[in-house]
Design a protein that fits this description.
The protein has helices spanning 3-31, 38-48, 54-74, 78-96, 109-124, 131-134, 144-168. It is mainly α.
């Protein structure tokens, strides 16, 4: 087996593993499969952790994971797929960061690992054992890599930044709609 064959086989295994895990997590969010909560339940959770609107956030996260993961596993549109999945995992990492690194403590270990694997595949490419290769790399051009990663980084920074600003801002007293009471009790 040549070095090129080993590289292509290794990329296939990495794509199937990371892409499969991402796709499974995404379908939990979108459809409630594999013990997930679907759009409604995930949307409520997203609201509770500062991603608003919750249902739209759940849909975006589910599509990034399920769509990006499936495309990575297939080796199709690899720059876009990897960038989308990496962006979704950056959002997940932001949620878990206060718990530290390790997953057993609720940390960002798993999300970061999946995000880095997805980004690495976006940069490296899918290898010859992929639909991108079969299709002549029509959806895997060199210019697509920095474009997809830069666009995803910008959108992710905006979304995660907005969430963080919401979390940092103290909640106003809803009884008075942010207005001060006229009289002290």
């Amino acid at each position: 087996m040549s070095a090129y064959d080993r590289r292509d086989l290794g990329l296939l295994l990495l794509r199937l593993g990371a892409g499969g895990v991402l796709a499974a997590h995404g379908t939990q969010k979108l459809f409630g499969w594999f013990g997930g909560h679907g759009i409604e339940g995930t949307g409520q959770f997203m609201e509770s952790i500062g991603y608003r609107p919750g249902k739209a956030s759940a849909t975006a996260a589910g599509l990034a994971e399920a769509g990006g993961g499936t495309l990575l596993a297939l080796g199709l549109a690899t720059p876009l797929a990897g960038a989308a999945a990496a962006g979704g995992m950056a959002g997940a990492s932001a949620v878990h960061a206060p718990n530290g690194f390790f997953a057993q403590e609720g940390g960002y270990e798993t999300a970061a690992t999946l995000g880095l694997a997805a980004a690495g595949l976006a940069v490296t490419g899918p290898g010859r054992l992929s639909l991108d290769h079969v299709m002549g790399h029509f959806f895997d051009r060199g210019w697509m890599v920095p474009t997809a990663l830069a666009a995803t980084a910008a959108v992710t920074a905006l979304v995660v930044g907005a969430r963080q600003r919401r979390l940092d801002k103290p909640e106003k007293d809803e009884q008075f709609d942010g207005q001060e009471p006229l009289f002290e009790e």
